[in-house]
Amino acid sequence: MRVALFVTCLADTLFPEVGKATVQLLERLGHQVEFPQAQTCCGQMHVNTGYLRDALPLVRNHAAVFGGYEAIVVPSGSCAGSVRHQHAMVARRYGEDDLARRAEDVASRTFELSEFLTDVLGLEDVGAYYPHRVTYHPTCHSLRLLRVGDRPLRLLRHVGGLDLVDLPDAEVCCGFGGTFAVKNADVSTAMLADKMRGVLATRAEVCTAGDSSCLMHIGGGLSRLNAGTRTVHLAEILASTRE
């Protein structure tokens, strides 16, 4: 299968280990992964803040760059959600029906990482080993937009050595929400405090999720508390082995 990695802006600029772990995992499972150099931001932040026309060139570029792949894997529910639910809408808003059709075609082959592993490859045990106490935060876009459900949990339950503990009020937002955290800082901080309280109640060593953005938010709060709990992306856990 010809697989492309859509790495996302945050992984590219701040969390490159997430992209590397995704490639390492997929290659270990026997797939050749390509990284199209011409990929850019998916345009989600433009759309979410009302700058749809500015997102149009990004949608056009994305459709062109990823059009030839059998599958596009994204280590982010947020950005996968943007490709699947925003790109065609943006194109049609400005009368570009051909672009909208190409965007829909790319979207149909775009998968958040846990979706690709479970739904496309039919796997739950990916041969990972991670001997730590871990709790999982289901991010809003993966949970509500992509509806990944328990796919990440099914993968985590098969990781050797991992002690998976339930997160209290897991489905409650962490308070990041992209520009929401900037425009509504006080509310965001209060939501983060609630999320951290839940994480710390689990006594987990690691809080994991499928979105670097939420992990950045939660991890920043935990680091300021010197809590001893760290955040690790799902891809990094699934890429870990005994070796």
Helix content: 40-55%
What is the assembly state of the chains in this entry? single chain
Taking Cα atoms only, what radius of gyration do you get, to the nearest Å?
18 Å
If helices are DSSP runs of H or I spanning 4 or more residues, what is the number of helices? 14
Structure description:
The protein is of the alpha/beta class and 243 residues long. The chain folds into two domains: 3-120, no CATH class; 133-239, Rossmann fold. It is built from 14 helices and eight strands. The chain has helices at 9-13, 16-28, 44-48, 52-66, 77-85, 87-93, 97-108, 113-120, 140-145, 151-157, 180-183, 185-201, 212-225, 234-239, and strands at residues 3-5, 33-34, 71-74, 110-112, 133-136, 163-165, 206-209, 230-233. The strands form two sheets. It has a four-stranded parallel sheet, sandwiched between helices. It has a four-stranded parallel sheet with strand order 6-5-7-8, with helices on both faces. Helix 5 (77-85) runs antiparallel to helix 7 and helix 6 packs antiparallel against helix 7 (97-108). The longest helix has 17 residues, at 185-201. The two termini are 26 Å apart. The model has no long low-confidence stretch (mean pLDDT 96).
